[in-house]
Specification:
The complex is a heterodimer. Chain A has 26 helices and twelve strands. Helix content of chain A is 51%, strand content 6%. Among the domains of chain A are: 147 residues, no CATH class; 227 residues, no CATH class. In chain A, strands 1-4-5-12 form a four-stranded antiparallel β-sheet. By secondary structure, chain B is of the alpha/beta class. In chain B, the strands form two sheets. Chain B has an eight-stranded mixed β-sheet with strand order 2-10-3-9-8-1-5-4, with helices on both faces. A two-stranded antiparallel ribbon of chain B has the order 6-7. In chain B, helix 5 runs antiparallel to helix 7 and helix 8 packs parallel to helix 10. The longest helix of chain B has 24 residues. Classes of the chains: A mainly alpha, B alpha/beta. At the A-B interface, helix 1, strand 1, helix 6, helix 9 and helix 10 of A face helix 1, helix 5, helix 6, helix 7 and helix 9 of B.
């Protein structure tokens, strides 16, 4: 077997080298990754901005299938679990491999997609040709199909060897099954478990006239750009721009950035980014105790998540608003079921022709205790226990997700004697319980970081419903964030809005999301430039996306790792 | 094009129709008349289960007062008392943190199951055992969880973590779905579709060298893990193409569907019992020899139906009952764990093999994430084993080894299951000292 593969390997390499590209991926160990993100200490610069091989996220996988085969393909089965690194799953995609149970799942998912894509009802829509006979292989038609689909699945043209391997597979299986489409299905299914599809691999090309400098090659650029702005594989036009060399020119790149940003699909990209940054994957396992919170159903959770998404898409994209206003805005969207949680009547009798009747725009009055996304069901219910609120979890989430500040884990050998003291019967409110707990010197430090903000949200129960008392005792929602005092949740929202860490964090997270890794030490100047540009544009998120996507730094790879 | 030729040859060979010869493991053997061994006198294969539940048992209430044989389990292990002659209790052992920051509920499982609190890249015990004994079954190992999470403690490395299956209905389909071949069926015809799938995987595998050629070391390791996973599936298909060895005790499991998954202990127990039954049937039918099950996670967030708090929060916040001397709610959860483990063992004892039961050839290991959940300490971490693994270890013993690294238990059990290691663990948790008292 070894003897057989070696000559092919050499040929493949020659083929790639002829195009001036060398496959490369990251050399950055996980332990160092965290440091690179937090402090950037102790790493050789060359290690930090290497390209990373990223595994497609479930959302990206589904979008790719929809784009290539059209809507309506059922994608059953379970995707592999993800790891959150540096606050983002997207960065974690550069760390994970595929375990055996996961491989089995992807294999089953892939075979099911191939069967659906080529079933008699659908095949005519996606096939560029018809076989001479259905009962026998047809080399030319298989080649035509696999070449076109392969380019979309691998995000680049297939090499000659890749294509002929896939065509051979279709022909052989087609001959055995005496059915052209069964053969093609076998070949197509095999592509869904290949590294080239499941992992976004990047290749670099030397920059002409600058010895030792490398840029991503045009197809890798196209992928970075498209996944960043659309959360999707490059479309045909972007692949064509890569093929023609257009993407390698400043003008050509800018044109494509503008085209992608002008498309409605940029909403997918924005949703994906914020869903990652706000940890909305946790909604999949969110549940509340049904005896305590009988109204918190799956629909409430789903709508709560969607409410925040709609709020931010409306503010940041449709209105091109200031990112900071996300924490103070009184504009939102509600469904009747959410209305019952918010105690707001929601009427959905919208004018004829309105495309969506379940959602209605809503604006809280100026004196309402709800303002900003921190007071929405998505935030307060996600960061609570199943049976009660948690000011600590809420404060921790705010620090870590929105301000990019790491809260230390609780220490080992903690003494909880204060809260366990039976002579102090019951602390009625969370503030009382936490105050008692935090008098322990070991605990005070961390709880000071989280609790004063979390307690300002105590008006919102674990299910998000407004309350003024807990166990009969009135709630005190005063708090402080980095020296700014407030008395209630809107006050907290304003303090978050005005905190310089809020916008710094967004820039950092968005750059990390786009790159698939934390910013490198050597990218300090670029990060500073992004901060400046973000501020100069009035903290408009689409502008930040544009600046990142059009930066040469986004596509550069440092010298020494290119071996 | 050499690879294409190779693959074609393979494909043709396999697809040549009915004339192909199919390898039968251990000839066309049958069980002996007692049903507890193969006809050629060989013993039925050993099975290993790594059973996990976080937050330990209440310290001071599970440890037997005497060591050696004839011990009495502590009061919080009373649910397991009927099994004491088949059970070993291990007490007093600990994990050394070696200056690594304590990860409240993460260091424990890593240390107990991977031998290190600080090297996340090490494989877990169940996977090392699977490499030693699981290579002739359809599934090298199976991993399940009992709430709705897919996280568990089985991994080949930090980047190849085995996702656990929470849904018994899906586990049922995976084991006993259309790809299952009844080992006792008279007829056997290899499925041509399986042959094709296997040859497809072989064709991908052939490209390994090309694909890793220009990768950095970290990505090379990730790609290697990908190929390890690919080979595992290829191997499964290979087994599915062979006529399985008849196994008298193998009975197809009844179909499982419509399960409530969630974070309520009572639901998790029901899920657990279905998983237990499915795993026992899978082992009786030769589908796997290694499994990992977790009831709750390490900082277990299961709760009692209708209760406000999750188990984890009770351990930290519940007051010690002045009369009982321990946290009452915590004890309820701890008792649930012991009862669940008992149910698990019962599922194995419920499958008769000759004059004995499936438990006779199984070794079921209980592990957890700490010694004292209230304070996250890693001292006196409880461990239990039930079953002798086909006579690989002695049972009915209480082993106390205060302050020894708890990796001694893992090392001993892995050696007993045939893993070729003389030493296990990292830094201060390294040990080459097996627990000789239990070695048969």
């Amino acid at each position: 077997m070894k003897r057989a593969t070696r000559p092919m390997g050499r040929r493949w390499l020659t083929a790639t080298l002829a195009c001036g590209a060398v496959a490369l991926t990251a050399l950055l160990p996980i332990s160092e990754m965290k440091h690179a993100f937090a402090a950037g200490a102790g790493l050789a610069a060359s290690d930090q901005d290497a390209p990373v091989m990223r595994r497609l996220t479930p959302a990206q996988y589904k979008i790719v299938i929809r784009d290539v085969f059209g809507p309506g393909i059922e994608i059953g089965g379970r995707f592999e679990p993800w790891q959150r690194v540096g606050g983002l799953l997207e960065v974690g995609t550069g760390k994970v491999s595929l375990a055996s149970t996961g491989f089995e799942q992807y294999d089953a998912i892939g075979r099911s997609i191939a069967a659906q894509a080529l079933d008699p009802q659908r095949r005519d829509l996606i096939m560029p040709c018809k076989p001479a006979r259905e009962t026998a292989p047809d080399d030319a038609c298989a080649r035509q199909f696999l070449q076109a689909v392969g380019e979309q699945l691998y995000r680049r043209p297939l090499t000659d060897i890749e294509l002929s391997t896939q065509v051979d597979l279709a022909n052989e299986a087609g001959a055995k099954f005496k059915n052209f489409y069964s053969g093609l299905e076998t070949s197509l299914a095999s592509m869904f478990v290949q590294l080239q599809f499941l992992f976004r691999q990047e290749t670099v090309a030397p920059v002409k006239g600058v010895p030792g400098r490398f840029d991503l090659d045009a197809y890798s650029k196209a992928s970075r750009l498209s996944f960043f702005l659309w959360d999707a594989s490059p479309d045909r036009r972007l692949l064509a721009a890569a093929a023609s060399g257009k993407l390698n020119t400043e003008k050509g790149l800018n044109e494509e950035v503008e085209r992608l940003l002008a498309s409605p699909r940029v909403e997918d990209g924005m949703r994906s980014f914020f869903s990652d940054m706000f940890g909305f994957d946790s909604f999949d396992s969110l549940s509340k105790d049904p005896t305590l919170y009988p109204n918190f159903t799956r629909t409430v959770a789903d709508d709560g998540r969607e409410q925040t998404m709609r709020t931010l898409v409306d503010l940041l994209l449709a209105r091109n608003g200031d990112y900071r206003d996300l924490y103070t805005t009184r504009r939102t969207f509600l469904t009747p079921v959410l209305g019952s949680m918010y105690r707001v009547p929601v009427t959905t009798n919208l004018p004829n022709g309105f495309p969506e009747t379940r959602w209605a725009a809503h604006e809280y009055p100026a004196n309402d205790p709800r303002a900003g996304i921190l007071t929405q069901v998505s935030f307060v219910s996600l960061h609570s226990h199943p049976g009660r609120t948690s000011p600590t979890l809420r404060g921790k989430a705010l620090r870590e997700m929105i301000l990019c500040q790491k809260v230390p884990d609780p220490p080992g050998n903690v003494s909880f004697t204060v809260v366990q003291d039976t002579s102090n019967p019951l602390y009625k409110t969370a503030r009382e319980r936490l105050t008692a707990h935090a008098t322990e010197a070991m605990c005070t430090g961390c709880h000071k970081i989280t609790d004063p903000m979390g307690l300002a949200l105590e008006n919102f129960d674990s299910d998000g419903v407004f309350r003024t008392a807990e166990n009969g005792a009135a709630l005190d929602t005063s708090g402080v964030l980095d020296g700014i005092q407030f008395t209630n949740a809107p006050g907290l929202g304003k303090a978050v809005r005005d905190n310089p860490a809020t916008t710094r964090c967004l820039v950092n997270r968005m750059a990390s999301y786009a790159l698939g890794r934390g910013p490198a030490q050597t990218e300090g100047d670029w990060m500073a430039a992004l901060q400046k540009a973000f501020a100069a544009k009035g903290y408009r998120v689409p502008d930040l996306m544009r600046v990142i996507a059009a930066s040469p730094e986004f596509y550069q790879v440092s010298v020494s790792q290119s071996q | 094009m050499n690879t294409a030729l190779n693959r074609r040859t393979v494909l043709r060979g396999m697809m040549g129709g009915t004339a192909i010869s199919v390898g039968l493991p251990l000839l066309d053997c049958f069980l002996n008349t007692h049903g507890d061994a193969l006809a050629d006198g060989g013993a039925l294969p050993k099975c290993f289960v790594s059973w996990f539940q976080g937050l330990a048992f209440v310290p001071g209430y599970w440890e037997p007062k005497t060591t050696g044989a004839n011990y009495e389990p502590g009061p919080h292990l009373r649910a397991l008392a009927p099994l004491k002659s088949k059970m070993n209790v291990y007490s007093g052992m600990k994990l050394y943190l070696d200056q690594t920051p304590a990860n409240a509920h993460g260091s424990g499982p890593a240390g107990v199951l991977q031998g290190s609190v600080s090297h996340p890249n090490l494989p877990s015990m169940d996977q090392m055992v699977a490499d030693a004994i699981g290579t002739r079954t359809r599934f090298r190992s199976l991993e399940v969880s009992c709430d709705n999470g897919t996280d568990a403690f089985s991994r080949r490395s930090a980047t190849a973590v085995n996702a656990a299956e929470p849904d018994p209905a899906k586990l049922y389909m995976r084991i006993f779905g259309p790809d299952f071949r009844d080992p006792n069926a008279a007829d056997f015809t290899p499925d041509p579709a399986v042959m094709v799938r296997k040859s497809v995987l072989s064709s991908i595998k052939d490209k390994r060298e090309t694909l890793i050629q220009n990768l950095g070391s970290l990505d090379k390791a990730r790609v290697d893990e990908y190929f390890t996973s690919l080979r595992a599936l290829e191997h499964r298909l290979e087994i599915e193409l062979e006529k399985p060895r008849p196994l008298e005790a193998c009975v197809m499991h009844a179909k499982v569907e419509g399960i409530t998954l969630g974070k309520v202990m009572e639901d998790a127990r029901a899920t657990h019992n279905l998983h237990a039954s499915l795993l026992a049937h899978a082992m009786a039918c030769g589908q796997t020899q290694v499994a990992h099950l977790r009831l709750g996670s390490s900082a277990c967030d299961l709760r009692r139906r209708g209760s406000q708090q999750v188990y984890h929060m009770y351990t930290h916040e519940e007051a010690v009952d002045p009369v009982l001397g321990y946290q009452k709610e915590v004890a309820w959860f701890s008792n649930q764990s012991a009862e669940a483990l008992f149910d698990f063992v019962k599922a194995f004892e419920g499958i008769r093999e000759g004059t004995g039961t499936l438990l006779d050839r199984a070794l079921i290991m209980y592990s957890t994430d700490c010694g004292n959940a209230r304070t996250h300490t890693l001292e006196n971490i409880p461990m239990l084993t039930i079953g002798s693994g086909g006579g690989a270890i002695k049972t009915g013993l209480h082993v106390n080894a205060t302050s020894d690294p708890i990796t001694r238990v893992g090392l001993t059990l892995m050696q007993a299951m045939g893993v070729p290691i003389g030493q296990w663990g990292m830094v201060s948790n390294t040990t080459s000292k097996t627990i000789t008292e239990i070695l048969a």
